[in-house]
Specification:
Blueprint lengths: L10 E5 L3 E2 L5 E2 L2 E8 L9 E5 L37 E5 L14 E2 L4 E2 L9 H15 L6 E5 L1 H12 L6 E5 L7 H16 L16 H15 L2 H7 L19 H14 L4 H13 L20 E7 L7 H14 L3 E6 L13 H13 L2
């Protein structure tokens, strides 16, 4: 196994495809950047796929190559942790449409010899899942012991159980939803308009200028970041405290700490993310409606599934509130699927699934061990 170049950190594969997309286009070839941790059992029974959230990537438990920061889910993934490379073979790939190595608007269209830009086809959550299935075929993984994801990653976990019911034995869906609401779509549209209003966007054709629409993307990130937090959490962390000054400036500098925090979030984001990818991935989540894909009845999405489900929500998450998780649980009940559900207390809003959450870790650890 150790000599198999398919496995390990910082891997990349170009698959011939074609990948038929929900929008009707055929994507070929299909580049996928991914990482694996641990060793695949001889019977292939210990594979776990981790699906990243909107601005995440394949560096789930390794240092990010650009920021140098630890992986985005090292609280959950690692030796001795619920998802343990000593017990599990862990896979995490960059979704198509992304910007850290998988096919997306920033990658080169081999037919044109230049980046796709806005000629890249619109993708869906189900398209991302189909591409991941191609990767699993490449890795020799027939079935998944579990697919795990939070936020957009949870949407992928749901789509996996619906699209490939024979390949998933368990699905863990955290702080997610089976569809995007009008409010979800509205926030994303604000972000997309901020990107497209930046004169450096140039209709998405900015890669060769060396001057991307950073200002627009930063504003998009700032607006989105507000939805990841809770009012209580913001108040506790920042209140109305001023930033490195004793009095208001009576101008438009970042007087308040919360303003400075958001500006930092926006600026740091543009160093590691592509503006066009932001457009494509937010659109994919907006289009996500699992019931619509199955005749308008969410329970239909799970009728062929043999998987166990575990759903986790957080009481201060107003982006994907507990009511959205309960709707999924009701549909799973209607489909006769085994499901566990817990709402956890947290002051951190939607971002709680990425932060220190011993309760979430205990739930996931117990659920995975129960299926071993």
């Amino acid at each position: 196994m150790s000599d198999d170049t398919r496995f390990g950190l910082a891997r990349h594969v170009t698959l011939p495809g074609p990948l038929k997309l929900d929008g009707g286009a055929l994507l070929s070839p299909v580049d996928i950047a991914y990482e694996t941790y641990g060793t695949l059992d001889a019977d292939g029974g210990n594979a776990i796929l981790i699906c990243h959230a909107l601005t995440g990537d394949q560096n789930v438990a390794s240092n990010h190559p650009i920021t140098g920061k630890p992986g985005w889910w090292t609280r959950l993934v690692g030796p001795g942790k619920p998802v343990d490379p000593d017990r599990h073979f862990i896979i995490c790939s960059n979704v198509i449409g992304g910007c850290t190595g998988s096919s997306g608007p920033a990658t080169v269209n081999p037919a044109m010899g230049k980046p796709w830009g806005m000629s890249f086809p619109v993708i869906t959550i189900r398209d991302m899942v189909r591409a991941q299935a191609m990767l699993l075929d490449h890795l020799g993984v027939a079935t998944l012991a579990a697919v795990i994801g939070g936020s957009m990653g949870g949407m992928q976990a749901l789509s996996w159980s619906a699209t490939f019911p024979d390949r998933v034995r368990a699905a863990i869906v955290i702080a997610s939803a089976a569809r995007h609401t009008a409010q979800n779509i509205a926030f994303h549209e604000v972000g997309r308009q901020a990107v497209m209003a930046d004169p450096n966007w140039r209709g998405g054709d900015y890669y060769e200028t060396g001057d991307p629409p950073a200002a627009g993307l930063a504003v998009a990130r700032m607006a989105a970041h507000i939805t990841y937090l809770s009012e209580a959490g913001l108040t506790e962390k920042f209140g109305r405290r001023l930033q490195t000054r004793n009095a208001k400036s009576f101008g438009f500098d970042a007087d308040f700490q919360v303003e400075s925090y958001l500006r930092h979030q926006g600026i740091s984001f543009v160093d590691r993310f592509d503006a066009n990818s932001y457009l494509y991935i937010t659109r994919a989540t907006d289009y996500f409606d699992l019931a619509e894909e199955h005749g308008g009845l969410l329970a239909n999405a799970f009728r062929a599934s043999k998987a166990r489900f575990c759903l986790v929500s957080f009481d201060t998450d107003w982006l994907y509130p507990t009511s959205e998780s309960r709707a999924i649980v009701h549909a799973l009940n209607a489909a006769g699927a085994p499901v566990s559900f817990v709402e956890l207390n947290s002051p951190f809003g939607h971002d709680a699934f990425l932060l220190d959450s011993p309760g979430m870790n205990r739930v996931i650890d117990g659920f995975l061990r129960a299926g071993a």
